[in-house]
Design a protein that fits this description.
The chain has 406 residues and is an alpha/beta fold. The chain folds into four domains: 3-19 and 176-318, 3-Layer(aba) Sandwich (Molybdenum Cofactor Biosythetic Enzyme, Chain A); 21-42 and 149-174, Molybdopterin biosynthesis moea protein, domain 2 (Alpha-Beta Complex); 49-136, Molybdopterin biosynthesis moea protein, domain 3 (Molybdopterin biosynthesis moeA protein, domain 3, Beta Complex); 329-400, Beta Barrel (Beta-clip), CATH 2.40.340. It contains seven helices and 27 strands. Strands 8-5-7-6-10-9 form a six-stranded mixed sheet, with no helix packed on it. Strands 17-14-18-22-21-19 form a six-stranded mixed sheet, with helices on both faces. The two termini are 42 Å apart. It binds adenosine monophosphate and magnesium ion. The site of magnesium ion has 5 residues, from loops.
Length: 406
């Protein structure tokens, strides 16, 4: 029985689980997912400090100050950023202070340097000021104990800054999956070769490896093998050492489509094979021990779309990520969709924004062998099975893809 897209995805997400927790050095943590909630070990700012270059004062001293009635305060000296905050000042006094330097005891506000004049050992103020102006108070940004980054968040530059601020030189994360790729097909030659008649240069293993790297997962062996059972067997056995093995090609019902049968002989248990989905009906999903196996059809557009919809979110789940995929958006269809199928169809399309609204058009050529559609599309348009034709102007569901097009 052929599964539909939702049921097949549910089976994948039920089966794959986040990998073990571990710690990684902060500098190597980008792209990984936090395995613990990060709680602030102390407040931020960690001490009261000046937000400007200026003069720390007591606001009350300046309440009578105006251009006609300047107030003169005695300058006690200078506190630079990095100085300790032990200075103490009283009414009638001020202290010059740098941005980020600790506020001296006794001060409750800071006047900007631009607003004063120095007169020998005194400073002239011509304006009143509120308390707490230009001061950055301890804990006002983040309070001690605040849950600042939830578990499952992928670590990017903002998270790295926060983790560094709080002293996490080692970061609690999940181990990333190790992924192997085998492209199968006797027609395939390497990228440096000149194809003889009937041959093509292999492209899927590089494409899939690129998609794996977008998720910061670890690539193990990437190989390309002909449709010879003995050779396939060796390549599969090697690939099954990974957490996730991507086997590309040979998943259908052709005479030389050995992949599925050979995987079974190697002990791979089928969870499902074939889905009511286009492109990529022959998707295979199975397991052997702790290894998950995705069998992807060789047609480049099929394996590309299946990676987006099945493999990428599965990798993210294994990484412990909270967000498994980019949300779908609603877009206005620019040209009608007249041809529909008895399977759910994810059409490659062009998405753009116009006057604050998403608009999308499907590419004319939707062949699952189409390499052109890969570089020509930046979105997948969801068209339901047996859908009536969809007129221009309708709202459709679209998965934006990370793909720059001119
Ligand atoms: P298969 O899934 O093995 O039946 O292959 C389907 C189509 O995809 C055939 O036209 C193959 O030549 C092509 N194909 C298979 N594997 C690859 C690959 N790794 N790179 C590029 N094209 C491929
Ligand atoms: Mg093949």
């Amino acid at each position: 029985m052929m599964l539909n897209y939702e049921d097949a995805r549910a089976l994948v997400f039920q089966n794959v689980k986040p990998l073990e927790k571990c710690t990684r050095p902060l500098t190597e943590s980008q792209g990984l997912a936090l395995s613990e909630d990060i709680l602030a070990p102390h407040g931020m700012p960690s001490f009261d400090n000046s937000g400007v270059d200026g003069y720390a004062v007591q606001a009350e001293d300046l309440s009578p100050a105006s251009a006609g009635n300047p107030v003169l305060l005695e300058n006690l000296g200078y506190i630079a950023a990095g100085d300790s905050g032990h200075e103490k000042m009283n009414s009638g006094q001020c202290v010059q202070i740098a941005t980020g330097a600790p506020l001296p005891k006794g001060a409750n506000t800071v006047v900007m340097k631009e607003d004063i004049e120095v007169e020998g050992s005194k400073v002239r103020f011509t304006r009143a000021i509120q308390e707490k102006e230009n001061v950055r108070y301890q804990g006002e940004d983040i309070s001690e104990g605040d849950a600042i980054i939830p578990a499952g968040t992928v670590i990017g530059p903002a998270q790295i800054a926060t983790l560094a601020t709080f002293g996490f030189s080692q970061v609690p994360v999940h181990r990333v999956p190790k992924v192997s790729i085998v492209s199968t097909g006797s027609e395939l030659i390497d990228v440096v070769g000149q194809p003889a008649e009937g041959q093509i240069r292999e492209s899927n293993r590089f494409m899939l490896a690129g998609m794996v790297r977008q998720e910061s997962c670890e690539m193990l062996k990437i190989s390309m093998v002909p449709d010879l059972p003995q050779v396939l067997n060796e390549a599969f056995e090697e690939a099954l050492k990974a957490d996730v093995a991507l086997i590309c090609g040979g998943m259908s019902i052709g005479d030389k489509d050995f992949a599925k049968q050979l995987l079974k002989e190697l002990g791979v248990e089928e969870i499902f094979w074939k889905i009511k989905f286009k492109p990529g009906k022959p998707l295979f999903f199975g397991r052997r021990g702790k290894t998950w196996i995705f069998g992807l059809p060789g047609n480049p557009a099929s394996s590309y779309v299946l990676f987006e919809e099945f493999v990428r979110p599965a990798l993210r789940k294994m990484m412990g990520r909270r967000v498994l995929e980019e949300s779908m958006v609603k877009a206005t269809l620019e040209i009608p969709i007249t041809k529909t199928y008895n399977r759910l169809h994810f059409m490659r399309g062009l998405l753009h924004e116009e006057n604050g609204e998403f608009r999308v058009r499907p590419l004319k050529f939707q062949g699952s062998h189409s390499i052109g559609s890969l570089v020509g599309s930046n979105a997948l348009i969801r068209v339901e099975a047996d859908s009536p034709s969809i007129p221009a102007g309708s709202k459709v569901s679209v998965r934006p893809l990370r793909n720059e097009i001119a």
